[in-house]
Write a structure and sequence with these properties.
Layout: H1 17-34, H2 42-52, H3 55-62, H4 75-87, H5 92-101, H6 110-122, H7 129-140, H8 144-152, H9 158-183, E1 268-269, E2 289-294, E3 297-303, E4 310-313, H10 314-317, E5 333-334, E6 343-353, E7 356-365, E8 372-373, H11 375-380, E9 385-387, E10 390-393, H12 404-410, H13 448-460, E11 464-467, E12 476-481, E13 487-492, H14 494-499, H15 510-514, E14 522-526, H16 539-544, E15 546-548, E16 553-556, H17 566-578, E17 584-587, E18 590-595, H18 598-615, E19 625-628, E20 630-633, E21 636-639, E22 642-645, H19 648-654, H20 662-674, H21 682-690, H22 703-716, E23 731-737, E24 741-748, E25 751-759, H23 762-765, H24 769-783, H25 785-788, E26 792-797, H26 801-805, H27 815-823, E27 828-833, H28 840-847, H29 861-873, H30 879-891, H31 893-904, E28 927-930, E29 933-936, E30 939-941, H32 947-954, H33 961-969, E31 972-973, H34 977-986, H35 989-993, E32 1015-1023, E33 1026-1033, E34 1039-1043, H36 1049-1063, E35 1068-1071, H37 1079-1088, E36 1091-1094, H38 1104-1122, H39 1127-1136, H40 1146-1151, H41 1163-1166, H42 1174-1189, E37 1204-1208, E38 1214-1222, ...
Parallel strand pairs: 1-5, 3-8, 4-7, 23-26, 26-27, 30-31, 32-35, 35-36
Antiparallel strand pairs: 2-3, 2-6, 6-7, 9-10, 11-16, 12-13, 14-18, 14-19, 15-16, 17-18, 20-21, 21-22, 23-24, 24-25, 28-29, 29-30, 32-33, 33-34, 37-38, 37-41, 38-39, 39-40
Helix pairs in contact: 6-7, 7-9, 20-21, 20-28, 21-22, 24-27, 33-34
Length: 1321
C-alpha cells in the first residue's frame, strides 16, 4: 500500500512560508490517510513527517525549544510546533503584491485564472476577499467591450462578474468555431470581429484537394479568381458594396445585432458583443434607445443599426391599444452563439417618431429582450443618419450647433433640483474600531429658530431624516452662518473617518486623460450640483451619519460632506455613469468633454445630458464652461494646439516686487540657495544681488541688480527648475503668512511645481497670527486644488500649534478657525512643523507678494466676521452685564497680556512666555479674541475680579459639585475653575448640613475565633412588648435566647450566669453600650474574668453577628406565633441546621455532636464527632462575604485631632463638631459639638468639613447617657469614666467676636430608678 503513494515534495521555505506550509500539511495528511498511516503510532508518523518535510524544515525541527507540557515524541505536538513556527512567517505584503501582479496569460482559461486568484488571496488576509478578486478581474480585463460591460453592471458581485466572464469566454470560442466551420479557415487573426455576416446558404464550398488560393480581402476566404461570394453584396457595417462586414476597413463600430442577406425570405442572424443572450435585460447605454409611438402606445425601442428586421416581445404586443392581425412566418431567427430565437409570427404596426409615421413589420418573440428597431426602420423614422465611414449615430444627431441657452432650455430638468445616483452607497466599517457617541454641543440660542427652519428644509428635500431609535454612531454638527443670514449645516465625522474602509477605486491619471486629447478642438467642463448629496446612503450607512441637534437627532440620507471616502465614491459613480461615453473624461470631480469637431462635441454632450436625465444626475448651470477652445484642467491649460503650462503657477514669481531693503535681499538669497542645486551658474547670476549684502555696501537698487533679478525670476519660472506635475509622486506644500501677505509653493521631490502668493486684506491683517497661518494653508489648498484633491499631502508650516489644531475636534477651535477647518475637510492634509528659517520659498513669497493679488477678496471673510459677532451676541447675559465683563477684561492685567500674546502669536517654548500667562499654555490653540473678550472655544474667559461673584451665581441654588462644574463649563472658563468650585461648595454650610450619607467603607470583619465560645455577642431586642436577650457564639453561630423582665443590667446579668454555666465563660463579650457599659456590668465582667467590648454608637454593623441573629430569631418567633408552635422547637431546628456555606450545624461546631430532635436520625449521627477544618471553612466563608461586601465601597480619609467635621446625630442633619480624640477602636472618633457635648461615632457618620472649626462652649453638666433602645438609635453622648480618662479639648483659635454663653436650664433632673447603678461624669 505504501509503495502505491509517494509523499509530497519537500517543503519550500521560499516566498511565503506560511502558505507553503498550509498546502504541504494538507497534502501530507492526505498522504497519511491514503497509506493508512494516520492510525499508526506517533513515532512512525513523526518519522515519516521528518523524512518528507525536507532539509530546511528538518533543521528548524532540530533547533526547536520544547516548553513544559510539549512532547516532541507526540505527533500532534510536533505538528502544532511547526504550525506556530510557520504561522509567524506570513508575508502579507509580498502576497498582496503577487495577487495584484498576477496577470491572465494569453489563451489562459478564465476558470484557471480565477483559481490562481483565489489561491493567492488566501495568504493576503483581505477583509473582503471576494471584492478584491472582483476588482482584480475587472482591472485585468484587456478586452475593452467586456470591461465596459462589467463597469455598466449595477450588481457588481463576484459571482455576477464570474458569470459574465465565463459567458464571454464560451461565446468567443463558439464564434471562432463557427467562423472556422463556415469559412473553412484556421486563421485566428479575425478574432477581433465577433459578428457573423454570412448565412449557411451562401457559404462557399472549398475543395481541399485542390491547391489553396490566397485569402480574399473582400470575403476573407481563399477562392478561385472571379468567384468571390461577397461580390454584389452590401456591407452591413458601412453600407458599401462588394465586401463582407468582417473584412470592412472602415473604423465603424460593430453593433449588437447584425444580419446578412440570405436566400430565404425571412432568415437572419443575431449576434451580440455586450449582452450574453437575447433575453438579457436592457443595457445601461441609454444612447441606443428611443421612445416610439406604436399603435397609439409609447414603447421604448432599442436602436440597432446592424439588425435587418424588427423585434417586439409578444407580451408587449398584447398590451398595445390597437392589435393588428397576426400573420404566420416560417422565418428562422438565430441568436447569439447560433441558437434559435422562438417567435409566434409577424405583424404590421404603425410607428411614429420625430413627426414621421411608417408601417413597419415586426416579429413577435417569446423572449424577454427589449423591442428592437433594425437599420431600415431607424432610417425610415429619421432616428439615425449616415455619417461617412462612422457608425450610424442615434437620435442625438443635431442639425444645428448647440448653444448654452438651448441645452439649458431643452434639458431644464437636468439643471434643477437635487439629483440621485441609481445605486445607494454602503459605508464599510473596520470591525476593530469601536463606535463613538459624541456628547451634544451647545448652539447659541439666537440661532435656534433659523437652525430648526434649516433642518426642516433639509428634511423636506430628503437630505436628512429624524432618528427615533438608538444608534451606535452619533456625531456633532458645525453650524455656519453665511453672510446672507442663511445657515450651513456640516457634519463633523472625524471619529467615523477613522473607521471607514476606503474603496480604493482606481482613478485615471492626468497623463492618461491628456494622452487621449490629441487633436481635440472643443471642450466643455461640467460641474455636478451638490455632488455629494446626489449619492444616496443605504439604511445602515445613514444611521452611521446620525448627528445631535438641540431639538432631536437626525441622520443624513445623502452622503455628507467631510467623510474620508466621499471623493472615491463620487468618482466611482460618476465614472460608472459616464465613463463608457467616448470623449468624456472624469478625474475626481472634474468632468471634461473633448471632441475634434463641433458636431462630434454636440453629440457627446447630448449623450451626457440624456444619460444624466435617465439616471437623475444634476449639473450646476452657473459653473458650465461650454464649448471652449481653451480650458483650465488639472493645473494646465488645454487648447486645440495642445497643452501649455498655466501661467498662474508662476505669476507669484513673475510679479514678485523688487527688494526694498537688505532684509528683502537676504530673504531672496535664502530662497535661491534652497533651489541652488537646480539653478545652473547660480553664483554668477546672483553675484550683483549678493553684493548688496556686504557690510560696507549701502543698499541701492541699480539697473544691474534689476537685470539679475529678472534673470532669476525667469529661471525660477521655467524648465528645468519648474518641474512638471507627476500624479504618482508625493506632494508637499510649503506655506507661510507674514503680517501683510501669504505665500505658498507646491513641490515634488524638493523641486517646485507651482507658486502662489497674495496680500492680506485690511480685515485679514487684523487677524491673529495663528489664523493667518491657517489661512495660508487654506489659500494653498484651494489654489492647488487640482493637484492635491484626493491625495495625501504633507503641509509644511512654521506655526507649531497648527499640528494639534487639525487633529482636535472642530468645536474646540475659534469660530473663524472652525470655518477654515470646514473648508479643509475635503483635503487629506498632514501638517508638519518646520522652522521658519527652513521655509525659504514660502517665506519669501509671503513678504514679496504680487501687487495684483491685493484686489483679492475672500468671499468667506464677511461670513466669518458675522459668525464671530453671533458668538458674542449669544452670550446669556444682559447688555449691562456684557459691558461690565468687557470693562473688567480691559482692566485685568493678566488678560491684557494674554490678549497681546494671542494677537502677535505664542512663543515656541513655554518658558519664553510671560509667567502670568503660562497657565494658559496648554490651551493656547483654543484661545481667541472677539469684541474685546477672550474666548476658549465658545466659552468666555472670566476676569479675576468677577470670578467670586460668578461662583456665587453658579452655586445660588446649591446644586452639587458635578452639576455646578457642568453648568460653569458650558459657558465660562478660567484656570483652576474646577478647584475653585469644589472649594466653594466644600465651605458652603447649607450644603454641608444636608449632605447625603457617606458611602460604605470596605468591610473590617471580626477575627474568627480559634475555638468555640471564646468570643460571643449579646444584644437586647423587644418582641411582643417584652425585652429579650440574645447571645450568639462568633465561632459556631449558636444562639441563646432569654426573655427579660426588665432591660436593666442586673436582670441581664441574672440571665447571663446560667448561659455561662452551660457553655463556659467567654474571653470577649461584644455588646452595645447600654446596659453593658454600666458599672454593675463592668463589676460582673471583672469578677467572672471576661472583657466587654462595646460597639460603636450609631453603627450597629460593629456588632453585626448579634444584629443578624436578632433578625433570625424574630422571624422564628413570628412564624411560631402564627402557627401557635413552641419557639424552643424552632430554636432546636435552627441549632441543628448546617451553617450557610458549611457542612456543620451550630450544635456540631459548639458541642461536636448533633442534637436529637423530632426528625428520625441514626445513632451514628448522634455520636460525638469533632468538626474538622471548621476554622479554615469559616475563614474562607468570611473572605467570600468580604469580597461581595466590598464591591462599590470606598475608604474614607482618616481624621486628626482638631479637624473640623460634621457629625450625624440620630436621624438629624449634619451638626458642626470638632475631633477631640482618636478612639482605640478602628474607625472610631470622639467628637465635641458646639454645645460642648462629647460623642463617640464611627467614621461612616462623620464628614470632614472645610469650614472653620466650631466655637465650643464651656462644658456643661450633661444628662446621663440614655440606654440604647433597640429599634431606634438614639444620639447619646459618651459617658467617660475615670478609668477612660477625660478627653482633652483641642486648641482652637480665639474667635474675633465674643460669644455670649448659653444659660443652662435650672430645671431639676431626676434619674430613673433603673439607672441608679450608672456612673455619670
Amino acid at each position: 500500500m505504501d509503495r502505491d503513494f509517494k509523499p509530497p515534495p519537500e517543503l519550500s521555505l521560499q516566498g511565503n512560508p506560511s502558505e507553503n506550509w498550509r498546502r504541504w500539511r494538507q497534502r501530507f495528511e492526505l498522504y497519511l490517510t491514503a497509506t493508512e498511516s494516520d492510525s499508526k503510532e506517533d513515532d512512525i508518523k513523526i518519522a515519516r513527517l521528518l523524512s518528507a518535510i525536507g532539509p530546511e524544515a528538518l533543521e528548524r525541527f532540530n533547533h526547536f525549544t520544547w516548553a513544559t507540557g510539549e512532547d516532541k515524541a507526540k505527533y500532534k505536538d510536533v505538528m502544532d510546533k511547526f504550525q506556530r513556527e510557520f504561522a509567524g512567517m506570513k508575508r502579507v505584503v509580498f502576497s498582496r503584491y503577487q495577487f495584484w501582479d498576477c496577470q491572465r496569460g494569453e489563451g489562459q482559461p478564465f476558470d484557471e485564472y480565477l483559481t490562481n486568484l483565489r489561491v493567492l488571496s488566501r495568504s493576503c488576509e483581505f477583509l473582503e476577499a471576494d471584492n478584491m478578486i472582483r476588482d482584480k478581474i475587472v482591472f485585468s480585463t484587456k478586452e475593452k467591450t467586456l470591461k465596459e460591460r462589467l463597469l455598466r453592471e449595477t450588481d457588481t458581485s463576484l459571482q455576477k462578474v464570474i458569470d459574465i466572464c465565463r459567458s464571454a469566454e464560451i461565446t468567443k470560442k463558439e464564434i471562432q468555431s463557427m467562423q472556422s466551420v463556415k469559412c473553412d479557415t484556421s486563421s485566428s487573426t479575425e478574432s477581433s470581429v465577433h459578428v457573423i455576416k454570412s448565412s449557411p446558404q451562401n457559404s462557399p464550398v472549398i475543395d481541399t484537394t485542390k491547391k489553396q488560393h490566397e485569402k480574399c480581402r473582400r470575403c476573407g476566404n481563399p477562392h478561385a479568381p472571379r468567384q468571390c461570394p461577397a461580390w454584389g453584396k452590401i456591407c452591413a457595417k458601412c453600407n458599401r458594396p462588394n465586401h463582407f462586414a468582417r473584412e470592412c476597413r472602415s473604423k465603424g463600430r460593430v453593433h449588437e445585432v447584425a444580419a446578412e442577406e440570405s436566400e430565404g425570405e425571412d432568415d437572419f442572424y443575431f449576434d451580440s458583443i455586450y449582452v450574453g443572450n437575447i433575453d438579457a435585460p436592457h443595457p445601461q447605454d441609454s444612447a441606443w434607445f428611443s421612445v416610439v409611438n406604436v399603435e397609439g402606445s409609447s414603447v421604448k425601442m432599442k436602436l440597432d443599426t446592424g439588425a435587418a428586421t424588427n423585434l417586439l416581445p409578444h407580451k408587449m404586443f398584447l398590451k398595445l391599444n390597437n392589435q393588428p392581425q397576426l400573420r404566420k412566418s416560417k422565418a428562422k431567427l438565430t441568436g447569439y452563439g447560433g441558437h434559435d430565437i422562438p417567435h409566434v409570427g409577424k405583424v404590421l404596426l404603425h410607428c411614429t417618431a420625430l413627426g414621421k409615421t411608417q408601417a413597419l413589420e415586426f416579429f413577435l418573440t417569446k423572449t424577454k429582450a427589449p423591442p428592437i428597431l433594425g437599420l431600415q426602420a431607424c432610417t425610415a423614422l429619421g432616428l439615425i443618419r449616415r455619417g461617412g465611414c462612422h457608425d450610424s449615430m442615434p437620435v442625438e444627431t443635431v442639425t444645428e450647433p448647440l448653444t448654452l441657452d438651448s441645452i439649458k432650455s431643452e434639458f431644464q430638468d437636468v439643471f434643477e433640483g437635487l439629483g440621485r445616483f441609481p445605486d445607494p452607497y454602503k459605508i464599510s466599517i473596520k470591525p476593530e474600531v469601536e463606535p463613538v457617541i459624541q456628547p451634544p454641543r451647545r448652539v447659541p440660542m439666537n440661532l435656534h429658530v433659523r437652525l430648526r427652519g434649516k433642518l426642516d428644509e433639509m428634511e423636506r428635500d430628503g437630505i436628512i431624516a429624524k432618528v427615533d431609535c438608538p444608534t451606535d454612531w452619533v456625531h456633532n454638527i458645525v453650524v455656519v452662518e453665511k453672510k446672507n443670514g442663511d445657515l450651513r449645516i456640516c457634519l463633523d465625522p472625524k471619529d467615523l473617518n477613522q473607521a471607514i474602509r476606503r474603496e480604493h477605486f482606481q482613478i485615471p491619471t492626468y497623463e492618461d486623460v491628456v494622452s487621449r486629447l490629441g487633436g481635440k478642438r472643443f471642450f466643455t467642463i461640467l460641474d455636478q450640483k451638490d455632488s455629494f448629496w446626489q449619492v444616496e446612503l443605504d439604511e445602515d450607512s445613514s444611521h452611521m451619519c446620525t448627528f445631535n441637534t438641540p431639538f432631536s437627532r437626525y441622520r443624513f440620507r445623502r452622503m455628507p460632506f467631510g467623510i474620508s471616502s466621499a471623493s472615491e465614491v463620487l468618482q466611482k459613480r460618476t465614472y460608472k455613469a459616464f465613463g463608457d461615453i467616448e470623449g468624456v473624461h472624469v478625474i475626481a470631480d472634474d468632468m471634461i468633454i473633448a471632441a475634434a469637431t463641433e458636431e462630434e462635441h454636440d453629440l457627446i454632450l447630448l449623450k451626457v445630458l440624456k444619460r444624466a436625465r435617465e439616471q437623475n444626475i444634476k449639473f450646476n448651470p452657473s459653473k458650465i464652461q461650454f464649448k471652449k477652445s481653451e480650458v483650465f484642467y488639472m493645473g494646465n491649460v488645454l487648447t486645440e494646439h495642445g497643452v501649455r503650462p498655466d501661467r498662474v503657477k508662476v505669476t507669484a514669481i513673475l510679479n514678485m516686487p523688487e527688494p526694498q531693503s537688505k532684509e528683502d535681499v537676504r530673504r531672496l538669497i535664502g530662497m535661491l540657495n534652497y533651489l541652488s542645486p537646480y539653478i545652473p551658474n547660480m553664483s554668477a547670476v546672483t553675484a550683483p544681488i549678493r553684493d548688496l549684502l556686504k557690510k560696507e555696501t549701502q543698499f541701492s537698487w541699480l539697473p544691474e541688480h534689476e537685470r539679475a533679478f529678472q534673470t532669476v525670476k525667469q529661471i525660477l519660472s521655467a524648465e528645468p527648475l519648474l518641474k512638471l506635475y507627476d500624479e504618482s509622486k508625493k506632494v508637499t506644500i510649503q506655506c507661510d503668512a507674514s503680517s501683510k501677505g501669504l505665500g505658498a509653493c507646491l513641490m515634488q521631490e524638493g523641486k517646485p511645481i507651482a507658486y502662489a502668493s497674495r496680500s492680506l486684506t485690511e480685515t485679514e491683517q487684523r487677524w491673529f497670527q495663528i489664523e493667518k497661518e491657517l489661512l495660508a494653508i487654506v489659500f494653498a489648498a484651494e489654489r492647488f486644488h487640482q493637484y492635491i484633491y484626493g491625495k495625501e499631502v504633507e503641509v509644511e508650516s512654521d506655526h507649531k500649534p497648527l499640528e494639534t489644531i487639525l487633529k482636535k475636534p472642530i468645536e474646540n477651535a475659534s469660530p473663524r478657525i472652525q470655518l477654515m477647518l470646514l473648508r479643509l475637510l475635503r483635503y487629506k492634509l498632514d501638517v508638519k512643523y518646520v522652522p521658519g528659517t527652513k521655509l525659504y520659498i514660502a517665506d519669501a513669497l509671503s513678504r514679496a507678494y504680487s501687487a495684483p493679488e491685493t484686489a483679492h477678496s475672500d468671499t468667506e471673510i464677511p461670513e466669518m466676521e458675522l459668525r464671530i459677532h453671533g458668538l458674542v451676541m449669544s452670550l446669556p447675559m444682559s447688555e449691562m452685564r456684557l459691558t461690565q465683563l468687557k470693562e473688567a477684561t480691559k482692566e485685568d492685567e493678566t488678560l491684557c497680556r494674554l490678549k497681546a500674546t494671542i494677537e502677535k502669536g505664542w512663543p515656541a517654548h513655554r518658558k519664553s512666555a510671560e509667567p502670568s500667562i503660562r497657565q494658559y499654555w496648554g490651551i493656547r490653540d483654543e484661545l481667541h479674541v472677539a469684541e474685546h473678550l477672550i474666548f476658549k472655544g465658545e466659552r468666555v474667559v472670566i476676569p479675576s475680579c468677577m470670578r467670586a461673584d460668578v461662583l456665587k451665581k453658579v452655586h445660588e441654588t446649591h446644586l452639587g459639585i458635578e452639576k455646578c462644574k457642568a453648568r460653569a463649563r458650558a459657558s465660562m472658563y478660567w484656570p483652576g475653575m474646577t478647584n475653585d468650585i469644589e472649594e466653594m461648595i466644600a465651605k458652603c454650610p447649607t450644603c454641608a448640613k444636608f449632605k447625603p450619607r457617606n458611602k460604605k467603607e470596605p468591610l473590617m470583619p471580626h477575627d474568627v475565633p480559634d475555638r468555640p465560645w471564646s468570643k460571643i455577642g449579646a444584644d437586647i431586642f423587644f418582641f411582643g412588648g417584652r425585652p429579650h436577650l440574645v447571645v450568639v457564639d462568633y465561632f459556631s453561630k449558636y444562639p441563646e435566647v432569654c426573655r427579660l423582665q426588665t432591660s436593666t443590667a442586673s436582670c441581664v446579668i441574672e440571665h447571663l450566669k446560667p448561659i455561662y454555666a452551660r457553655h463556659g465563660i467567654p474571653d470577649i463579650l461584644v455588646a452595645d453600650n447600654m446596659p453593658f457599659a454600666s458599672s454593675e456590668m463592668r463589676t460582673f465582667a471583672a469578677e467572672w474574668d471576661f472583657e466587654i467590648k462595646p460597639s460603636s454608637p450609631e453603627y450597629p454593623q460593629s456588632n453585626g453577628q448579634s444584629e443578624r441573629m436578632i433578625g433570625t430569631v424574630k422571624q422564628l418567633m413570628r412564624k411560631a406565633l402564627e402557627e401557635s408552635k413552641d419557639i424552643h422547637l424552632a430554636l432546636l431546628e435552627y441549632r441543628n441546621t448546617p451553617v450557610a456555606g458549611l457542612k456543620y450545624s451550630p450544635a456540631q461546631l459548639l458541642m461536636s455532636r448533633m442534637l436529637k430532635d423530632k426528625i428520625p436520625v441514626t445513632s451514628e449521627l448522634l455520636a460525638p464527632k469533632v468538626a474538622e477544618d471548621a476554622y479554615r471553612a469559616l475563614k474562607a466563608r468570611q473572605r467570600k462575604q468580604k469580597a461581595y461586601y466590598d464591591r462599590g465601597t470606598k475608604p474614607l480619609s482618616k481624621l486628626n485631632v482638631g479637624d473640623s467635621v460634621r457629625v450625624r446625630l440620630g436621624r438629624r442633619d449634619w451638626t458642626p463638631a470638632v475631633v477631640t480624640q482618636l478612639h482605640s477602636a478602628p474607625r472610631s472618633y470622639l467628637v465635641t459639638t458646639e454645645n460642648g457635648r462629647v460623642y463617640r461615632r464611627n467614621r461612616r457618620v462623620i464628614n470632614s468639613s472645610a469650614e472653620p472649626p466650631p466655637v465650643v462652649l464651656a462644658a456643661q453638666e450633661e444628662t446621663p447617657a440614655v440606654p440604647n433602645v433597640p429599634g431606634s438609635q438614639a444620639s447619646t453622648p459618651v459617658g467617660l469614666t475615670q478609668q477612660e480618662g477625660t478627653p482633652q479639648q483641642p486648641s482652637l483659635p480665639d474667635p474675633e467676636v465674643q460669644t455670649t454663653p448659653v444659660r443652662a436650664s435650672t430645671r431639676l433632673r431626676r434619674q430613673p430608678l433603673w439607672m441608679a447603678d450608672y456612673v455619670t461624669p
